[in-house]
Task: structure prediction
Amino acid sequence: MPRHRFICALVALLVVLQFAIVTNAQSEKVFPTDEEIGLLLAQADRTIQRYKLLLDEQEAEIGKSVADEIAKDRESLNTLETVMKGFKNKHSRFNSPQGFTFLESLHNADRNLLRCVNTASSGSTGYMIAGNRDKADALLRLSQSCMDVSLLIYTISENASTLYQHFIEAQDEWAAHSTQEARQCENALEKIRPRKLDPAY
Result:
């Protein structure tokens, strides 16, 4: 009887290992790699540094009328930077709900930048009509800078969305393989399970 248990456990272990190796080989092709995530983070970091400068410039050029919005923008930026710091030493954290938080923060930044484009552009028109050409030009440059950074963040968001979609697909595939693996293991155990003998008397 102990020998049957040992054989059963050994077969179960071999089945689990076999399917685990197959699962890893198939899933790793789909999950975003550290290199892909690292490149995305490097691009995002450079763009965020430009975005920070634009927040300072908005405060200087537009003034108190956007103070509340700028404060909220800084909060969103802090969230984005905090998430990115979490990815810095372990890129694979992107392949988790933190990756979704990263995506949301990028979309918030893009929305905030588009608001900057509109506010600065409207302000520029107002100053142009009032005859203050220097201020109008400064706000027009700010509007263009916000548009440039918005386009960069949009591109990064698209890349991040693609990578995150790969993660979700890989996770679904892994879950399907895990279910199949459990069924195979159960079948293997059933085949080698010792049969209870009827009493001889």
